[in-house]
Fold Glutaredoxin domain-containing protein.
Amino acid sequence: MIQTLFRYFSHTSEHTQMVLRLIKSSPVVMFSKTSCPYCMEAKATLKVMQVQPKVIEVDKEKEGDSMKSALKELTMQNTVPNIFIGGFHIGGYDDLSEGLASGAVQERLKESNVEFKDIK
């Protein structure tokens, strides 16, 4: 399976590979837009949890549109926020909230060795 994924990712576009590198660059990564209310809520939630994500504001990035296309290809989600923990796609703000309520986000944070304040 790992070889299959490697083959898939080795044939992806330059922009998709860039997004994959960004996802791997930090334990918690959020693709966001500066004016998006759901992004603001997700950032506020993570701040209360004392989690410091790497935030990529796609509306401020030169390659922002290409990043959004690559994210859609990778996640089938074309909205922001688009959140990853330990390289695992969490989803958007609603998914973050549901994952916190179920404990799935906390578990993913623990598995990724990210310290956090549990707000559940």
